[in-house]
Design goal:
five-stranded mixed sheet, alpha+beta, 11 helices
Length: about 325
Amino acid sequence: YHESRPNKEFHFSIENVLSRDFNAYLEQEFVNYLGSFRKGLARIHNEMMSRIFASRPTPFYIWNEEKGFYPVDTIKLLNYDKFSPAGIIVKTYTISARRLRHLQDLLAKDGTTLMIGVAPPKVRIHPEFVADYIFNNDQLLQDHLTYDHYLSKWDVNSIAIESALNNLKSQGIDVFTSTGFHWNYLAACNIADAFMLKYQVIIGEAQRRLDCSNYTVAPSIGADTDIIRTLNIIDKDRFIRPSPIPQYTALNNNPNLKFPRMTVIGDSFSDLIFHYMSNYYQAPNGSRKSSNALLPCSTVRNFLLTVVFLQNFVGTMKEILQSSLKKI
C-alpha cells in the first residue's frame, strides 16, 4: 500500500532546476506514479494466485468449493485441542472457568449479571470440508475436552453457541458464508436472541427478544464478505455465494419493560452481536433508548465473547476487573 502525497507547487526556472528542490520534485512525482502502478500489480498478482493456487491462494486461508475460505490459524487451534494431552486441556479450561465464575460472583455483588459465550470458527462447525487438514479427522472432539463443558460445570452463565450453530446447521441453515471469517448475519441474530433469553431466565423477568425466523437468501454482503475483501483481488464476484439475511423484528415491545445497561466485551466475532443487540434498545416507536447503552470494549481473550448486563452498576468496570484479578 502506498499513499501518494501531492507535490509542492514548483515553478520552472534555471535557478530552480539547478537547485535541490527540482530533484525532490522529480522524486515525489516518480513515487506517486509508482505507488499507483504497484497497487495495480498487487491486485493482478493476487488474482493470479487465487486462480492458479485455488485451494491455498495465500498462507492464511484454505479454500474449497463447498464452503469457501477457512482461516488456517483456526484449523491449527482445533488441531492443538485434539493433539494436546487431555490433562493439559482439562487443567487449562478448569482454571479459566473457575476464574470466570469468581468474576461472575464479584460482579453479582454489585448487581451485575455476567454472561459468557465462546465463539466457534467455521472449522468447528464445518470440519468435514477440510478433513485432510485436521488431526484425527475421523474422531470428534470429546465433550469433556471443550471449554463449554467447563463453563457449565462451574455454573458460569454461558451460552452454548457451538451447540446452537450445530442445531441450525442440522436444519439445513447456513451459519457461515463462503467468503466470511465470522458467523453470518442470521447466526449472529440467533445468538444475540439467545443471550437475551438467557438473561430473561437468570433474572426471572420478561425481556425484549429478537425474532430471526424471517429471512431472505441473497448474495453475501457486508461482514459476510470480509475475507474476500482483504484478499484484494479483481474478480470478487466469482466467490460470492447466497447467504441468509434475517428480516428481524423485536418481540415483547412492551413499553413498561426495562432497558438494562449493557457492556459487550469481545473480539471481532462480537461485532454482529453488537449490531443486533443495539436493536434490543429500540423503543416501541423505533427510536434508540440511549446512544451509550452499549459500550464496546477491547478484546479480552481470543474467540471469547463476553456480554455483561449492567443493572445497578456500582463503580467502574475497570475497578471491578482490577479487584477481581487481585483475588484470583
